[in-house]
Amino acid sequence: MSDRKAIILVPGLFGFATIGDIAYFDRVIELLASCAAVPSRAIFVLKTLPTGALWQRVRLLHEEVEKRRKEGFSNIHLVGHSTGGVDVRLFTNDAFLWPGGPCKNERSANFSAIGRVVSISAPQRGTPIAVRLRGAMENAIPFLFLLSLLAKSGQRGVMRNAARPLALAFAAVRKGIAAHSHVESALQLSGLSPTTAKQASDFLTSIADDHPLIHELTPLAMSALNAQIANGHQLPISSFVTVAPPPWPHVARLALGTPWVLTPLQRLIYAFSFESTLPDAAPLSKGPWLAGVEPPRLSEIAAYAQDGVVPSASQSLDENVAGLVYGDHLDVVGHYRGMHGGETVFDSGASFDDERMTALWTAVGDLIR
After folding, report:
1. Widest Cα–Cα separation across the chain
2. Which end of the chain is more exposed for a tag (fewer CB within 10 A), N or C?
3. Do 159 and 17 belong together in one domain?
4. 264 shares a domain with 158
5. 318 with 303, same domain?
């Protein structure tokens, strides 16, 4: 009982624990329970704010850690995906403060209970998509993410069935008439159960007009924040970096060696997100390619590598990382086509598979174990 382990998983931007039977960290808990030798009942998904300010998200993480400590967990590991990876880094830096929160010494006193700190696909240096999609497009982004997550509901035809109903739901939100009945009805038309449709409706309407986080994740804003906390005491962090292929069809055919098999809508969404994320040239971090799989023509794309949402060079503040993954931003939390995966709105053509999924989360589990 003196060294009870717990793992807290932290979702990213527009993230959630579950919506009905849809899990943000799909398959992750079962993989970690096996690889990290931690029972599934001791793995918790933080119910964070999907688009709330960084300080609010870190405060919620602080409260979650305090709660688990009071329950007797003395060895708490933090794993964050996307913006969740920024959250775990800020939580474990005692120079990052928030209104009404503990002072610097009180913050670092809590660090004794923290074990491994892991970030995956995190915009530690910001991401250009946060600049390019501000304004009118901000309300459209959650729908793109939700489409991918809806595909995990078990409805194999969701990509065909959901487009028009979700368009109606989006119109309702944009017109300011997003009563739950409007959005729920549209979501149920796409094949969701009443319970899942209600929770999805709550999710969409809650973030329609409240998304300061997007503005905080610009490269300029993150650069200022990183400089501000540079002298704080920081716990070591293990970073995993994702790299996905360019979306252009001729590059895909050459690089992958097979015809592009995505639907036009899936291709368009990924291409749009990829183009909005294009970074300035920067060196790719060094580390092992998990499952021994690296992108074709890596030397040609390395300087501008990204995963469709975050530049690869932004995903760590260190030159060396725990591992590199050939996959896109959503692949690594289980949203991909595979034996245990399903449809996804955000398919990069990286052909992510169960082997790479298992290799990534085994590597995370090994760190914790």
Report:
1. 58
2. N
3. no
4. no
5. yes
Q: Which domain holds residue 276?
A: 1-129+217-369
Measured at the alpha carbon of residue 45, what is the angle toward residues 44 and 50, in degrees to the nearest 5? 160
Cα separation, 217 vs 269, whole angstroms: 21
Query: Are both 24 and 150 inside the same structural domain?
Result: no
Long-range contacts of 352-357 (CB under 8 A, 24+ apart): 352/326, 352/327, 352/328, 355/291, 355/293, 356/290, 356/291, 356/293, 356/325, 356/326, 356/327, 356/331, 357/27, 357/31, 357/331, 357/332
- pLDDT by residue for the chain (369 residues), tens digit each? 457 999 999 999 888 878 777 788 878 999 999 999 999 999 999 999 888 899 999 999 999 999 999 999 999 999 999 999 999 999 999 999 999 999 888 888 889 999 999 999 999 999 999 887 776 556 565 565 566 556 555 544 555 555 555 555 555 555 554 444 566 666 666 667 788 777 777 777 666 666 788 889 999 999 999 999 999 999 999 999 999 999 875 344 434 444 444 466 667 778 888 988 999 999 999 999 999 999 999 999 999 999 999 999 999 999 999 999 999 998 999 888 765 555 566 778 898 999 999 999 999 999 999
- Placement of tokens 């796409």 in the chain: 190
Q: How many domains does the chain have?
A: 2
Helix (H, G, I), strand (E, B) or coil at 12: coil
Predicted TM-score of the model (pTM): 0.89
